[in-house]
Amino acid sequence: xxxxxxxxxxxxxxxxxxxxxxxxxxxxxxxxxxxxxxxxxxxxxxxxxxxxxxxxxxxxxxxxxxxxxxxxxxxxxxxxxxxxxxxxxxxxxxxxxxxxxxxxxxxxxxxxxxxxxxxxxxxxxxxxxxxxxxxxxxxxxxxxxxxxxxxxxxxxxxxxxxxxxxxxxxxxxxxxxxxxxxxxxxxxxxxxxxxxxxxxxxxxxxxxxxxxxxxxxxxxxxxxxxxxxxxxxxxxxxxxxxxxxxxxxxxxxxxxxxxxxxxxxxxxxxxxxxxxxxxxxxxxxxxxxxxxxxxxxxxxxxxxxxxxxxxxxxxxxxxxxxxxxxxxxxxxxxxxxxxxxx
Amino acid sequence: xxxxxxxxxxxxxxxxxxxxxxxxxxxxxxxxxxxxxxxxxxxxxxxxxxxxxxxxxxxxxxxxxxxxxxxxxxxxxxxxxxxxxxxxxxxxxxxxxxxxxxxxxxxxxxxxxxxxxxxx
Amino acid sequence: xxxxxxxxxxxxxxxxxxxxxxxxxxxxxxxxxxxxxxxxxxxxxxxxxxxxxxxxxxxxxxxxxxxxxxxxxxxxxxxxxxxxxxxxxxxxxxxxxxxxxxxxxxxxxxxxxxxxxxxxxxxxxxxxxxxxxxxxxxxxxxxxxxxxxxxxxxxxxxxxxxxxxxxxxxxxxxxxxxxxxxxxxxxxxxxxxxxxxxxxxxxxxxxxxxxxxxxxxxxxxxxxxxxxxxxxxxxxxxxxxxxxxxxxxxxxxxxxxxxxxxxxxxxxxxxxxxxxxxxxxxxxxxxxxxxxxxxxxxxxxxxxxxxxxxxxxxxxxxxxxxxxxxxxxxxxxxxxxxxxxxxxxxxxxxxxxxxxxxxxxxxxxxxxxxxxxxxxxxxxxxxxxxxxxxxxxxxxxxxxxxxxxxxxxxxxxxxxxxxxxxxxxxxxxxxxxxxxxxxxxxxxxxxxxxxxxxxxxxxxxxxxxxxxxxxxxxxxxxxxxxxxxxxxxxxxxxxxxxxxxxxxxxxxxxxxxxxxxxxxxxxxxxxxxxxxxxxxxxxxxxxxxxxxxxxxxxxxxxxxxxxxxxxxxxxxxxxxxxxxxxxxxxxxxxxxxxxxxxxxxxxxx
Lengths: 342, 120, 605
Hints:
- The structure holds 3 protein chains of 3 kinds.
- By secondary structure, chain A is an alpha/beta fold.
- Chain A is built from 7 helices and 20 strands.
- Chain A has a 5-stranded parallel sheet with strand order 5-2-1-9-20, covered by helices on one side. Chain A has a 5-stranded parallel sheet with strand order 11-18-12-13-14.
- The longest helix of chain B is centred in the last third of the chain and has 14 residues.
């Protein structure tokens, strides 16, 4: 049997995992990544929940697997043409030319919600309102011991920014923001032992292994406070601190407070690449805009088109462990598909 | 709280079976979006009247849904109908129409309002 | 020459009936007008306004100029019926002079001229005259054909729906449809008998004479024609066609300055009866996009006329004013709807919990508005601009002020609204300010029209243009292509179209869009509408965006926090307020001052 060819679109953790697994299963794999290097969003993450393992560890592990494989990696790859019938992918870079393949795996991931669209929180207007991603950048940077220039006395985390919000056209839950907030709150506590750190949440969705335990630990060992209420708006004070308004729903009264730093937990949306490719290939989408699997229980890696597969967050918000499992399952599905083909 | 003392206790239980939930069903029929509330409190946090008084739309609506119809007429009169709550509601509850409908229901049923001795 | 025949009786009875009804109705309406409105009539009667009204009646009631402009086919239909009929009567009257030299001969001579003068009339150019009469009849019949066609195929007229009928309407409509075909029949048969008539009645008469006993049919045909006229006149006061005479009264009264304001009054009744149900407003109404077209102005007026306005119908309106803009009769459609919101629910708020303030003096009062607190980009830009222009200002609602009162007014709670207005008015008056500047068109309109303030009220677009014009702030032109959306309350509501556009031209490149100015779409999120759900608002917004973004601008500008927030949900490009556009291209900015004037509460112990 001739070796079958597979193209994996997207070089984040899902793409790397599925590519290396398919290579292991004996297929010829090309991995296409639009950025200059592999790694996707995990590259931006300093530490991962729930155990605060460095993000680089996960990436190094996957990169090593890639290096030990025969996967052809194309970075800075811009797809200009994708043809369902011929299973042909054309890249902008003509030297790489056209790829004619037997199967395509979309591991094109997610984009982050643009917090400026939630204007009432003042992101992009007030300098002390930042996103969870920017906070990771601060953690990663060299001067992370004093990132704000002064010692903040109080820091707030706003959950569900761009998630579970019909005003942003996103009714879905991004799943990982709650636990990210808890993790980041603990990390900030370690930087600022004296600061008061408060999370404003609608529901704490601690769905994963050890998440609830970390939530408990954040209270027990790190003194993180939780206020159940959705922040309605933020305003800037003369000293550039931020005044937020929230209802303390458990005491039943509106509450206002000043924070020195407000962190917005921005949610996950289907990436532009996921959207475009899905549309070009005529795939079905979920109501939340991610690509719809063929069967929600048994065939979540398959799509309505034969030979087109999804891996990771192109199919919906996921944490890292679920992404890896999903990608590995995708490799099995592709393998079965190729074995039965011709 | 001032009522604490030797008065006849009306009980702290919400007697869900006995409570009159007519108003809630009226609202549900006329503004079905009321069912979408997840109690996040965004409405109350942003409330223009909430700066000055204890008006709490989330709680008002919650109590109505439980059939605890205490003094709504006075509570509802605190609303300025400015519409900020409608603009922040993550579930798209048409809060202004809910308020309008509550007022209209009271207007139409003035004699029938059941006043229970529960504090908001 | 006969002077009378019994067949004219139905016509005469109908005519006397309609005149009687009109005299009674018109008198009652005018008597019941408020004293203020009556004095407006007295003041205006012997002025140019009366002449202007007569001219307008000719242009609108007969020629239907405005309908022609909006929808030529529909306009032609109305014009052929109204103007054609008018000319037919006028020329009929002129014809009667040939045998009755008394100008005040009975009116039925003019109407049934052909019966009384069945030969070619004995005067010069009589051939031309009969040709003209035939031509006018054809002109009317062509309009009638369109009317019948419209009833069954309204899409041809660019109307999505045509209006629905009631019993009185059906009688009037049926008799109206019969009048001119019967006249054609009666005149043709008569021409067939007497070998007269011209291209239409003459030819048709000849044809009919070949196979019909025209001699016997002639007299019944005239009876039928007279009957149809009589029935039409009697049914008219009970039908939509009452709009024809009422509109003429309306034109006089509106030119004297009378309009419907907060209360439904006698003039409002005149307005309701003046609606010709032309249906032009239906297509303008954006509620169609949301599947709520049944709430558009013409249907609302119909319910109002039948005194069956439901609360849903009263509350289901965007108050965008697009219908009012195109209404050929200039009916105060927005206010009529608002009058029906009064007394629908409680109106008992006293707002006694509002705090007292220590008076603060400033030259400019800035009132951001409730919604603007959810769009901090706007209020921050305004503060930055005030600081740069060294304006002595007080940010009146910096910590969230008291609502302007208009949202309550839109809910029909005018008494409650007045409490808020009194409260805000006191703060405004005590400040000694010269200008009140607001960022919200909803607030602007109520401050301007209902607060009765002694100081100048400006929307920030106008104020910012003054600052630019007086060189108090300097802008550089950025490369962005900006399309501008006119908010309903600012554009159609307050007539401010130029200032925002002048500002954009100083700061970027102004790009046009499909519907601008008076035709600008509503964003869909209007505070005036209580009924629309999120999905319906989404539909209206998408529809509006498709028109606004048609020339692919880089930025969508508007000047209302509510519109901004609504469009930002799905515009796909940055949506900016005019204040933000100014702040972004402003040079030599002053860094924020440490202290901004603000209100302080009087502490009560």
